[in-house]
Specification:
By secondary structure, this protein is α/β, with parallel strands linked by helices. The chain is built from 8 helices and 10 strands. It has one domain: 3-Layer(aba) Sandwich (Rossmann fold).
Length: 280
């Protein structure tokens, strides 16, 4: 070892006997699992409907014949099981955690499937949250999955960073709302993805408009055209605009998300289907 060694072996050309190897940040699947494509669903802030978009994307790809899974990485605010009406708890053995299948056959893992009560809070620090997400990817027995959606917590904190660094993302979908403020918020998520060299498939605008049942007109009740402007500013496609619809909210509350018939996300699902994945 050189007298001037700073212990930064990654950028050093010296061949020292006690050279330190950088730790492997990658999460690896269980040998018995198969996952072909991994798509992250992200947002720069909370409250824009990221979990709803994740659920609808999963339903859309499932209807296209793709074997679909959801990894709920929003550990402190999980909502995926409720949207799919899942009441049971995930089981496992010494080697695996077993996902729960929705009524339509979507494989799901979420911290709420492991807690005794759905309302039990998860009061963990960032590193433990991040390690849990990696464990969900590595220790769950995923059954021949064509596309896995990862519902990430909002922002650019520990968990999104861990997913970007550790999981083999084939792309991300950024969820926004119509307000002009989203330009700044979207920018944070987009720039993070580009810094981490993760492909961005496009934007989805939630709560885009209200379709009046009386006259068939679209009303942009939240105003603004922020998502379209942000898509143009960052050179990204606007994949879908999802309306404000009380039936969607009711379906989520009642665990009937798989019954929603709106085809808003079908083009995004078809785009994901065309992505060349790893052999499943």
């Amino acid at each position: 070892m050189s007298e001037n060694c700073d212990n930064n072996c990654e950028n050093c050309a010296q061949s020292c006997d006690d050279r330190k190897t950088p730790p492997d940040m990658k999460a690896h699947l269980n040998p018995e699992s198969r996952v072909s494509r991994v798509i992250g669903v992200v947002s720069g802030k909370g409250g824009v409907g990221k979990s709803l978009v994740t659920s609808l994307l999963a339903v859309s790809t499932n209807r296209l014949g793709l074997r679909t899974a959801i990894l709920d990485a929003d550990i402190t605010g999980p909502s995926i099981p409720r949207a799919f009406g899942i009441q049971g708890k995930a089981l496992g053995d010494e080697s695996h955690i077993l996902p729960i299948f929705s009524q339509g056959g979507i494989q799901i893992i979420s911290i709420n499937l492991l807690l005794e009560h759905d309302t039990d809070p998860v009061i963990w620090r960032g590193p433990i949250l991040a390690a849990t997400v990696k464990q969900f990817y590595s220790d769950v027995l995923w059954h021949e999955v064509d596309v896995m959606f990862i519902d990430m917590p909002p922002g650019t904190g520990d968990v999104p960073l861990t997913v970007f660094q550790s999981l083999p993302l084939d792309g991300i979908v950024v969820v926004t709302s119509p307000q002009e403020l989203v330009g700044m918020i979207v920018g944070k998520a987009v720039k993070m993805a580009r810094m981490m060299a993760v492909p961005i498939l496009g934007l989805v605008e939630n709560m885009s408009y209200f379709l009046c049942p009386d006259n068939g007109k679209k009303y942009r009740i939240f105003g603004g055209n922020g998502a379209s402007e942000a898509a143009c500013a960052f050179g990204l496609p606007l994949l879908a605009q999802i309306p404000v619809d009380p039936q969607i909210s009711l379906a989520c509350d009642q665990g009937r998300i798989e019954e929603i018939e709106g085809g808003w996300l079908k083009p995004a699902a078809e785009l994901i289907k065309e992505i060349g994945g790893k052999p499943a």
